[in-house]
Amino acid sequence: MLGTRAVRMAGPWFAACLLASIALLTWASAASALPTAPATTTLPGMSRPALVVNSAGDDANSAGAACLTALGTCTLRAAIQAADTAGLATTIRFDIPGSGVQQITPLTPLPAITAPVTIDGYTQPGAAPATASAAAQILISIVGPRSSANKFPGDGLLLSSSASGSMVRGLQVSGFVGFGIHVQAANTRVSGDRIGSDSFFQPNQS
Predict the structure, then answer these.
(1) Which of 26, 81, 163, 169 is the right S-S partner for 61, CB 3.0 to 4.6 Å?
(2) pLDDT tens digits, one per residue of 67-89
(3) H helices present in 11-162, as ranges
């Protein structure tokens, strides 16, 4: 460290620079002692990364706000459970292996949707919304149990009042005792869906 004599020899300009450097080091040392903020912060009402349904199965979620069943897959049931657990705006996409229509048959009622979601069946590879020259290609079908012995009361999808601002598109929903899509949430958009009958002409009963 430079002594008083060295500062005097270097002249006033050097002394001023030295004092400024000491002040900067003191500030940096104090700043480093402050607690650091997390790299990311999730605030109420924020959205989160999309959940991708990759299985037509009906297994339940086992990973909280992530979508992961005990089989290592993400089903529609598990995705809804994960979205409800997170309580944040969530997009549910589809990437189920295989060609043609992928049929999802819940064995029990799907969970009520209690947080804002966008369920987008048009994200399934090969699916596409209608255009001026072509009909919609809907490749995700949610079908109630066909056997009367296995039928359960309830709707295909239920969007509760707390799911305001949701969207459901690109789905075929049929074969349920209740409504295909039951909307209780405000500001919810249901568009580009086929509701009420499937390729076997099995309607929802409500």
Answers:
(1) 81
(2) 999 999 999 999 999 999 999 99
(3) 12-32, 76-86
